[in-house]
From TrEMBL:
This is Kynureninase. Homodimer. GO terms for molecular function: kynureninase activity. It comes from Qipengyuania psychrotolerans. Pyridoxal 5'-phosphate binds at residues 96, 123-126, 163, 192, 195, 217, 247, 273. HAMAP family: Kynureninase (MF_01970). It catalyses: L-kynurenine + H2O = anthranilate + L-alanine + H(+); 3-hydroxy-L-kynurenine + H2O = 3-hydroxyanthranilate + L-alanine + H(+).
Amino acid sequence: MLERAKSLDAADPLAKFRERFDVPGGVIYLDGNSLGCLPRATPARLEQVVREEWGRDLIRSWNSADWINLPQRVGAKIAPLIGAQPHEVIACDSVSVNLYKLISAALRMRPGRKVVLSEAGNFPTDVYMIEGLEQQGLAERRLSDRGDLLEALDEDVALLLLTHAHYKTGEVFDMEAITRAAHDKGALVLWDLSHSGGALPVDLNARNADFAVGCGYKYFNGGPGAPAYAFVAERHHSDAQQPLSGWMGHATPFAFSDDYTPAPGVDRLLCGTPGILGLAAMEVGVDLIAEIGIEPLHSKSQKLSEFFRQCLLESGLDLELVSPIDPAQRGSQLSFRHEDAYAICQALIARGVIGDFRDPDILRFGFAPAYLRFEDMAEAARHLAEVLETEEWQRKEFRERAAVT
Ligand SMILES: Cc1ncc(COP(=O)(O)O)c(C=O)c1O
Ligand SMILES: Nc1c(O)cccc1C(=O)C[C@H](N)C(=O)O
């Protein structure tokens, strides 16, 4: 398989982009769906922001370096990558905080309805944020199994909140059909794009989506704790009111008035002063993904995951796949179920193959198409086969749980 991998790499139109990332030697990184790799241009850009814009120009940089518009500028660059208009997206805060803002805004837009419907087993923060609003008496949380979601949609539902590509299994929802079904019941829809933005084609406006949020530190390679992004469809710009009425979301923050007037459009999603270092790093990652293009990234992602699967099959491994077998139905990942998934994951990490474990029994491999090679797939599959054949994962040191998994 290694020979075949090398010929696929030689013919890969995206191969040249690998050197634009600082991929550490001796590592096969299959966790770009948790924390993306460092773009090579990021340290120099951060050095410039720190030394020149902050160190030398100090407060003048809010104007001279246009820091004040950085959340909008980064949002506008993400917009075409998720099927939105530039003025519909803003980069700020974390996904969790943006969920709070948008769930609250949606509830205000559907007076008389309190139910926020989501999938049982959705990424925890999504369901926790609904729970928090429920504890404040503002929402009623309803969780339903994936297959029962449409049945659970009724006229009490104010908002349907779903993750487009599931964080554990990678299974992708049909955004158009589900959004339509929710709208038919008078509900709004908020899509969490954390595992699809920057890796899969997302067409928010063509699917008539209302709201979306997504992660900056995964496929957009914005760095640890990078700002997230949030989308509000233009038709909701005057109605969507979020509760974190901080001064940066004011129509005229520098008028310093006693009363809050929300800024027009997505600018009102801002709360406090944006983190400029995080946004500057994020912009480098977004620029790079935009330069490569979502369609080529998606096409390569499907080929990588299929090749990985083929390599596993060739080595005779019979692992239980929990991701959809059809690449069109899944995000840029493959997940397998094994009762010793944690120890297997640790044994692989010791060999330099970094995937991740998701409690209780999922071994997850993310395929960031911007910097991975087919050769990495062949090698990772070989290591996985060896770890399982030799039962190397049985070693005691691979069974001790770390704080962050
Ligand atoms: C689907 C999903 N939503 C939200 C998050 C977390 O968002 P944040 O840490 O930015 O609040 C993640 C991963 O961390 C995720 O996978
Ligand atoms: N954000 C993370 C973190 O701060 C530490 C460890 C992992 C993460 C993640 O991003 C987890 C990720 N969203 C997931 O899909 O599992």
